[in-house]
Amino acid sequence: MLSIPDRNAHKTKIADWLELNCVCAPDGHIGFGTLVSASDMSREEQPEDITEEDLWEDDLVTSAQDEISNRRKCIGDDYPFRVDEGGEAMELVQRPTQAGAVYLFCLFLSHAADRDIIPELLAPPVDNEARDLFQVCATVAAAGYVKGNAVSFGWPRPAGDEFLHALHRIYGLIGDGLPHAKPRPAAPAHVKDEGIDVIAWRPQPDGLAGMQYLLGQVASGNNWKGKSVAVDADAFHKYWFERPPATRHENAMFIPFCLDPQGHDEGATSQEDLVDHMQRLTNKYGTLIYRYRMAHHAAEGLRIHLRGGFTVERVDDLPKVINWVQTYSRTLRGV
Question: Are residues 139 and 274 in the same domain?
């Protein structure tokens, strides 16, 4: 069994502990009551007030169940875990959907550098392969979010095309904005992506400007808070376009993590903390596509791809995400 987080850990981390232990369990099953026994085993001293301890244990289980319920509500049938009819235990779905694999991939990445649950020896590698696979997930999710087209612009691009060539290809499809014909005099010799990893748009029926248009940055590591596509997006339009798009863009940040607001107002509810936390993040980073939204929108991106009529790049790479998830799951189980 994996280490249980500190008693003061946010409920999202407690729910992650349950999910990760489902993955580790040979039968993919864990009871909610295991939370209590694991927490008791981690205590260094016995509690003085048994009644107060019982209340705390009830709250621990209830908050974890509420968080699992919230995930199921947000992600729907693609959530890769299920709760039994009595609400006493949860288990890993034997064959998760592709969107369910996206959720598991994000779950694992969330704990790559976090030692509260997964020990360093079992931590997943966040290498170039993992970062590229997260961009796969983000591109498909972006298509689902705008309910339209999405291309993977982050370097290295799937087509391998150089920067200006990719701009002309993509904005020719968008039909709004004209990139420079050649690099500007002081442009860097080797331009990668200028901080823009995903471009997504839903065209209007007349094909003219004034559509939903998203520029996204993809951040798979804990350093995401030091990034923001807002600054990069403005410089991108001002410097690289002879005629910038007339359509106003939407900034977006794609991350594999949960939202875990640490509120300091003891009178505020957890929902009030969450609402205020998201307002702060949205003001700074734009639309935040975090783990729950990532899986939800990836499912929609897959449906859009299957219906046809839109370009959804990287969707054919989702089997690689599934293989990565399966391989790392075996590592966690010690198989």
Answer: yes
